[in-house]
Each structure stands twice: as C-alpha cells, then as structure tokens.
Amino acid sequence: MTHPYFAGTGLPRVLAHRGLATPEGEESSVWENSAGAFAQAVTAGAEFIETDCQVTADGDVVLFHDDTLERLTGDQRPVSAVRTAELRALFAEHGGLMTVGEALDAFPDTRFNIDVKTDAAAEPIGALVAAHTQRLLITSFSDARRLRALDAIRRAGAAEPPATSGGRRSIVALRALSALHVVPGTALRGIDAVQIPVAQGSFRVLTPALLRAAHRHGVEVHVWTVNDPAQMRELRELGVDGIISDHADVALRTLAA
C-alpha cells in the first residue's frame, strides 16, 4: 500500500534539495535549508522539500546539513557547540533559521524528506514530527539511526509511521542482490524508498535491475542530486520515481514538458 506521503502526486516527483536557495537566473544571499529557501521552493511549485537536521548546544533540532558551520560561515565549530540564538543571528540575513517544528508549522501543505544527520537528533525528533507523519519521510545514511528515529516517533504517539528511505546498508544490499538477480526482500523490509546517486565514482549505483527489484517490492527509487535537464529527462525515461535537485524550478519545468 502506498504511503500517504506519496499519494496524489505525479511521477517523477521533484524533491527540492535543501529548498531552493538560488532560483534560476537570480543571485541570492539565501542559504540552503532556510525559511527563505523553502519559501522559494514552494513558490516554484515544489510539493516535496528535502532537508537535514542537527542538534544545537541548546538541544534544539534545527535544519542544517553540515556537522560544522565552516562551509557557510568559515567558522569551524560544530553545530552541536553553537547556541540556537547565535545560529538564528547568523541566518537572519540569509533566509532565516528553522527548527523542525517551525518548518512543519510554517509550511503545512509541504511534504518533508528529513535526513537525520546526527545520533543526537534521533530521539528528540520523535515528539516534533509525530503529528505530521502523513507528509513526512525520515531517512539517514545510518540505518541504525533511522530506526531509532522511527521508534522515537512511534513512542511519541504517531497515529501511523512516516514514510522512510533506506540507509547505506539497505542500499548496498539492494544493489548487490539485484545484480545477482536475488530477491532482496529482507533488505527492503519496512522501507518505502531508496535514495541514491546515479553513480559513486566509477561505480554505477542506479541500474535497471535495481529499479526492477525495488519496484517489485513497491519501493520508490529517488536519485540525487540531479541539476542537468537532459539527465532529468533520461531518468524519467528510465522510470525513476523521484529526482532530488538543487534547482527544483528547473526540474519542475523540465519534467512537465
């Protein structure tokens, strides 16, 4: 049975990667994973936003990708060592910081794909998202962390579990078993999607066999991070279910054509 997260939307789905920080043809000081980036993605027509969460020194679960501030600000401190108020001040002129709860409240019609980036976020995210599971997909590169987050959501009283995307271990098993034409049933148990690159270096991750195996088990295949329109069209023809893009505005136009 298809999870409500996917219901009523066309294929391939476009997931706005960390929102839309720089719409096509514009210069912008808006940072990824900010309120401004999410608003720009929604304005462009995105129904799905991919984002990431970390935990601040105050224990707040904020939307931030990297472990440290270095890439965005030049500051080498880890997010976990920074107070939430200081992060808000840093984001103030760059789109605005958001906690998980604030994003779900501010964008009530948007479906969120949340990557739990740190073990510290797995427990507190439960209470923050339990009321929103119909429009939520939880993922992590760590399957153990992902399962801890799902358990926290269940214990927080969610009426139903969120959708979930398998982590690295699940993806490796699916890729290997599909290549050997072995049914990957156990590898896909409890999983609604896998989110993968087309390739990792010279190794091809996305293959027709992987697609067929996933689809036989009702599991969607989403590909990241795709910014080239020609590649978007190729992936649509191949039959992928979702395209994660930094340029959701371009992806939406390309795939609507």
From TrEMBL:
Source superkingdom: Bacteria
Q: Name one GO molecular function term.
A: phosphoric diester hydrolase activity
Instruction: Show the Pfam families listed in the entry.
Output: GDPD (PF03009)
InterPro entries named in the record: GP_PDE_dom, PLC-like_Pdiesterase_TIM-brl
Regions crossing the membrane: none
Q: Where is the GP-PDE domain?
A: 12-255
Q: Could you give a single Gene Ontology term from the biological process aspect?
A: lipid metabolic process
UniProt xrefs under PANTHER family: GLYCEROPHOSPHORYL DIESTER PHOSPHODIESTERASE, GP-PDE DOMAIN-CONTAINING PROTEIN
What name appears for this protein in its UniProt entry?
Glycerophosphodiester phosphodiesterase
Source species, please? Microbacterium bovistercoris
